[in-house]
Amino acid sequence: MNEDVLAEELRRSLGELVRAVRTVDTMPPGEAAILGFLDRDGPLTTADLARLRGVTHQSAAKSVKDLSAEGLVRGEQHPGDGRKQLLYLTDTGRSRLQRERTLRAGALGTAIRETFDADERRQLGQSVILLSRLTARLTGRPRDEPPR
Q1: Which residue from 36, 43, 66, 141 has the least number of CB within 10 angstroms?
Q2: pTM for the whole thing?
Q3: 45 within 8 A of 87, measured Cβ to Cβ
């Protein structure tokens, strides 16, 4: 299979997998993404979040407003630019994000156990390492190698 065909098959398959795993989510994907960015990257502005998510500032601002109303994020005046707010993940937000991640991992873990034998699970583990390297190449962000 040539690289372009492989790339399209991989894109399609991963997209379907992500959508299937998200069926257990209890919050909108955009809001979960914002919590994830704040957890991984620390305090960010609404503009930062819009850029990272690839959405408009208005869309990110609506999600931030909803998350703030639920007490999942809080804002503080930006120390370098008083016109901006830095957004922080609250303890409640971190707990909610962890619940979402646990639901997703649980659903995926069950599917892996029920679908693959031990050898296939080892192969899948090796594939995760390759996918992490591919992600790092595309994003320019180093990724830790997952445990084996």
Answers
A1: 141
A2: 0.81
A3: yes
**Average pLDDT score over residue span 131-148:** 76
* Two tokens, residue 58: 């208005």
Instruction: Give the pair of three-digit tokens for residue 101.
Output: 């991640």
Spatial separation of the C-alpha atoms in residues 148 and 125, rounded to whole Å: 7
- Asked if residues 143 and 136 have their Cβ atoms less than 8 Å apart, the reply is yes
Please give the Cα distance from 6 to 119 (Å, whole number): 23
DSSP secondary structure string, the chain?
A: --HHHHHHHHHHHHHHHHHHHGGG-SS-HHHHHHHHHHHHH-SB-HHHHHHHHT--HHHHHHHHHHHHHTTSEEEEE-SS-TTSEEEEE-HHHHHHHHHHHHHHHHHHHHHHHHH--HHHHHHHHHHHHHHHHHHHHHH----PPPP-
What residues does 89 pair with on adjacent strands?
73
Check if the beta carbon of residue 36 is closer than 8 Å to that of residue 94: no
44 pLDDT above the threshold of 60: yes
Place of tokens 């809080």: 74
